[in-house]
Design goal:
51% of the residues lie in helices and 8% in strands. By secondary structure, the protein is mostly helical. The structure holds manganese (II) ion (MN). The site of manganese (II) ion has 7 residues, from α4.
Length: 259
């Protein structure tokens, strides 16, 4: 379906300042735009529980910032397509896969992904690709912020303990993301004891399936960066490292410790 011309909230508000004709016109445009494409309305950061404990039917949450908020590191068009189409696609396919499995519909997203290998054969691949795809992207959106932020508390201590420094961790994330052959992700993950590691997953696999809790991760599928960076994955990963919301990652770590 053709999307109507999009109008960001910022631009819609700008229209309001342009004389009476625009005042009459702009709110109608804005309403149409929001109704047709819910991700235009900026949301808020999801809690740890909202990220991991969502259940069927799954739905696309608005981004916690405007589509253009991460410019110039991540361009607006990439955000619109990545969130509104790719991520929505994983959600649709996941819902379709679970539609006729009422016994799985009460499982949380993290239970589905962590327990992937125990699911019925006919849904395993769909949950691996689309359940993972959904969870991976929710974590991705929710652990970025314009300008980035700093690690705090026990995460900051654990980074020093397990990597020596934040700079070393960033080097490991860069190296891991560069080493993904084809499509996949690089993650900062925690084990049950709170030890941190950097891991890669292929395709839309998630560290939960290997018993690790993902705290943040970078999507290195070409759809995440190709419009702006073409083949320069390393430059895109450098940009992502400047956007990581370490304060939110710190909160994720505290929650993963479960105390
Ligand atoms: Mn993606």
């Amino acid at each position: 379906m053709e999307q109507p011309k999009k109008l960001s909230r910022k631009k819609a508000l700008k229209y309001l300042t342009f004389g009476s004709a625009s005042v009459l016109f702009a709110p109608a445009l804005f309403t149409t735009s929001c109704a047709a494409n819910g991700n235009r309305r900026q949301g808020s950061y999801l809690s740890y529980s909202a990220i991991f404990n969502a259940t069927y039917p799954f739905s696309l949450d608005p981004l916690p910032y405007d589509d253009d908020a991460l410019e110039p590191y991540i361009d607006t068009k990439t955000m619109e397509i990545h969130h509104g189409r790719h991520h929505q696609g994983y959600i649709n396919n996941l819902n379709n896969a679970l539609e006729n499995h009422s016994n799985l519909q009460s499982m949380t997203l993290s239970e589905l992904v962590a327990g992937l290998n125990d699911l019925p054969d006919e849904v395993q691949t769909a949950v691996r690709n689309h359940g993972g795809g959904h969870l991976n992207h929710v974590i991705f959106w929710n652990t970025m912020t314009p300008g980035g932020s700093s690690a705090t508390g026990r995460l900051a201590d654990a980074i020093d303990r397990d990597f020596g420094s934040m700079e070393n961790l960033k080097e490991e994330l860069k190296s891991a993301s560069g080493g993904v052959f084809g499509s996949g992700w690089a993650w900062l993950a925690a084990d049950n004891g709170g030890s941190l590691s950097v891991v890669q997953t292929p395709n839309q696999d998630n560290p939960l399936t290997e018993g690790l809790t993902p705290l943040t991760g970078v999507d290195v599928w070409e759809h995440a960066y190709y419009l702006n960076y073409q083949n320069l994955r390393g430059e895109y990963v450098d940009a992502w490292l400047d956007l990581v919301h370490w304060e939110k990652v710190s909160e994720m770590y505290e929650e993963s410790l479960g105390e």
